[in-house]
Automatic annotation (TrEMBL):
Keywords: Ion transport, Membrane, Transmembrane, Transmembrane helix, Transport, Zinc, Zinc transport. This is Cation efflux protein cytoplasmic domain-containing protein. It comes from Stentor coeruleus. The chain crosses the membrane at residues 15-39, 45-64, 76-96, 116-136, 215-239, 245-265. InterPro entries: Cation_efflux, Cation_efflux_CTD, Cation_efflux_CTD_sf, Cation_efflux_TM, Cation_efflux_TMD_sf, CDF/SLC30A. It comes from the Eukaryota.
Length: 362
């Protein structure tokens, strides 16, 4: 518990440092972009803004989701993160649309770009990327050294303290934050609370290395974008008549922004529409419930995500001996699928026609 508090504080401090560095370089790029008249530099600044918003969502959701549920907000505040992600993407799309139309305007009506200022600003932008890469890389090596300890406490939660909901929530949040810190906006679709102990550890390691790869790819992508702007800057510096290189960069980056944010929007909307989580096979779970001894029927079957890493499930279970079947069902869902929030309504054979499924019965 204390170790986790400590870890959370550390993550939070790293997030604040990241935001500070990003704001510094974004401000520099906005000034350099306006002075040089380079749209590509401003597009890069818009990208840094999207990274900043991602960090801010992590910070705010870390504070907000720690708040306990209230009488009026009985689910707590987990989905604040999803709403925040959608709002920030809406802002980024608005900015990108403006940059895109401005780029087309500049392609039609040629405008001059100050090559030297553009080049210097783009190089500073690359430096910013390298610093961010160092900050993110540092957090990787740390989380790696913490890994053994972490897996220990995770598997204890899932195997021994299954009825104790508080601890796993803290763990999931810790995982969420570590992740979002590395890759802004990414919505986590893997739950670590899965399977038996061995499977669990494997899964956990797997998702962690995936996160590292994703964060690394993001840094590489950012660096490539900066290098693209530098190349455009060099071209414009030596051949000022080829100033089209600048809006062409913006058009290219705008398309990339659209493509990279699309899957995140999809995941957010899926959570808000109570869709079945990507990593969950609903028909497999339903079949396993049906295979429980004495279970005759499963209906009103729903699996949805409260937040990216918190799965809920509800269903009606028609059984010969409902109470023993219910116990087995809850155990199955917790042990094999890590679904801790379940609401299962049990019905006796024959009872459902009158009580549950007849719309005229009131
Ligand atoms: Zn831990
Ligand atoms: Zn970025
Ligand atoms: Zn029913």
């Amino acid at each position: 518990m204390n170790a986790h508090d400590h870890e959370n504080k550390k993550n939070l401090r790293k997030l604040y440092i990241s935001v500070f560095i990003c704001i510094l370089f974004m401000t520099g790029e906005v000034i350099g972009g306006i002075i040089s008249g380079s749209l590509a530099i401003l597009t890069d600044a818009a990208h840094i803004l999207s990274d900043i918003l991602g960090f801010c969502i992590s910070i705010v959701s870390m504070h907000i989701s720690q708040r306990p549920a209230t009488k009026k907000m009985s689910y707590g505040f987990y989905r604040a993160e999803v709403i925040g992600a959608l709002l920030s993407i809406a802002l980024i799309w608005a900015l990108t649309t403006w940059l895109f139309s401005e780029a087309i305007h500049r392609l039609i009506h040629k405008s001059s770009v100050e090559g030297s200022v553009m080049l210097i600003t783009a190089m500073a932008g690359l430096l910013g990327n390298l610093i961010m890469g160092f900050v993110i890389g540092h957090s990787h090596s740390h989380s790696h050294s913490h890994e053994h300890d972490h897996i220990d406490c995770d598997s204890h939660n899932h195997l021994n303290n299954q009825d104790h909901l508080i601890k796993p929530i803290i763990n999931l949040k810790e995982k969420d934050v570590g992740k979002t810190e590395m890759l802004p906006f990414e919505i986590d679709s893997t739950t670590c609370a899965k399977g038996n102990e061995k499977k669990n550890i494997l899964k956990h390691n797997h998702s962690k290395s995936l996160n590292m790869r994703a964060a690394f790819l993001h840094v590489i992508g950012d660096a490539l974008q900066s290098i693209g702007v530098i190349i455009a800057g060099i071209v414009i510096y030596f051949y000022p008549e080829y100033s089209e290189a600048d809006p062409i960069c913006t058009l290219l980056f705008s398309v990339i922004v659209m493509f990279t944010t699309m899957p995140i929007i999809k995941d957010c909307v899926k959570v808000l529409m109570e869709g079945t989580p990507n990593d969950i096979n609903a028909s497999e779970i339903k079949n396993k419930l049906l295979n429980i001894e004495g279970v005759l029927e499963v209906h009103e079957f729903h699996i949805w995500s409260l937040s990216a890493s918190k799965t809920c499930m509800s269903c009606h279970l028609v059984a010969i001996d409902p109470h023993s079947s219910l116990e087995k069902a809850i155990f199955l869902l917790k042990k094999d699928y890590g679904i801790l929030n379940t609401a299962i309504q049990i019905e006796l054979q024959g009872e459902k026609q009158t009580l549950c499924c007849d719309p005229s019965f009131l």
